[in-house]
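Journal club prep, notes for RB
We'll compare a predicted complex against what the paper describes. Inputs for the flavin-adenine dinucleotide case:
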Amino acid sequence: MPQTRVAVAGAGIAGLTFAAALHRAGIDCHLYEQAEHLTEVGAGVQVAPNATRLLHRLGLRDRLRSVAVAPQAIEMRRWDDGRLLQRTPLGNLCRRRFGVPYYAVHRADLHSSLLSLVPPDRVHLGARLDAVTQDADEARLHLSDGTTVTADLVVGADGIHSIAREHIVADRPQYSGQTIYRGLVPAERVPFLLTEPRVQLWFGPDQHCVCYPVSSGRQVSFGATVSASDWREESWSARGDVAQLAAAYAGWHPDVARLIGAAETVGRWALHDRESTDRLSSGRVTVIGDAAHPMLPFQAQGANQAIEDAVVLAACLADAGPGGLSTALRRYERIRLPRTTLIQRRSRDNAKTFHLADGDAQRRRDTSAQGSSGLDRHEWLFGYDAEQAITYDAEQAITTSRSS
Ligand SMILES: Cc1cc2nc3c(=O)[nH]c(=O)nc-3n(C[C@H](O)[C@H](O)[C@H](O)COP(=O)(O)OP(=O)(O)OC[C@H]3O[C@@H](n4cnc5c(N)ncnc54)[C@H](O)[C@@H]3O)c2cc1C
């Protein structure tokens, strides 16, 4: 449906990827972003092969290679003595198996790479969505400056507190009881972490710490969770207290203590998610990314799933015939929901398994981790090709219509 007028709320990873994928398909769209300036803050984000392959096809192969780091492995360690519990090899093994790298990237680099794919006059800044309305003929974005934008389709890419989602599901974000402190440290302050580029995690009672190099190896990004805090703010720019964080990790492995000690500032983020939903659209309104399925970051897949959503929705719209909007939205939902629901659930499961107190359950976890170190168990996640899923869905639809 190349004539469709599409209005997107939010120019984060989901909104920009969607706009880039639509632009590639020759469909025009406009993005309405509340921020006055697109200076993406935050620390690192892991981009797994399931998203890397889509970003490469959008034209970001060279750009990612120049700004990201391809870790050689993901290592899980014990909190106190640093004993290795599991090593998942990445590097060339990952490239050979999945055809593309696993990347660790600064959010700002990913964001600006995506932004480079979208015509600048299609991104409207300082445009805050207050409400969405629709009737049979059109959907509308009501912005806080009083402007109303009409469109054939409204896409909510407006994150966990999505206004567009209110139009589809009656629910609220749920606090996980966890706060995450995030920081960036210059690489020269933590050379002991960089003998090999790796994603390292230390698991301990009630909390865990993760770190990896970003910005072509110039910085190390880390996230350290702390449980049972009554802090509820979600913002990439909310500040935390390094001394408080260091106190929460007292007694942990010296590498963790030295990493936290090397940070001058930390951001602080209260972790929320939502229950998964059984619908992603209502009439002419749909949602992608965190607006559709906010998840805890314990599988490092939120942004990856946002990228998958964006590419699939754009392809469903591009494939739809005249008047095919509702068919396209049903197809998007059918392809995406089973996968994102599973990943949301597994991210919650990891919140428990990462944070086990020392004891029987922790020993069972560690024994099973040691027995499953290869890439096989990641095939379903990293091997998934969202664009093939669209083709597969189309083939299924043909088979079903022939047999009925
Ligand atoms: C600590 C932490 C670590 C993470 N690590 C990873 C990782 O390693 N790998 C991974 O894949 N994912 C990770 N994630 C998840 C990932 O950050 C999110 O899933 C991803 O940012 C979702 O992108 P989005 O575009 O859907 O939403 P957002 O990034 O929230 O973007 C939403 C955009 O919409 C705008 N907006 C919001 N409301 C309005 C409005 N009313 N009007 C107009 N604009 C609006 C916002 O300003 C923003 O630009 C992590 C998350 C956290 C919290």
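Talking point for the session: Residues 6-173+274-391 form a domain with the FAD/NAD(P)-binding domain fold (CATH 3.50.50.60).
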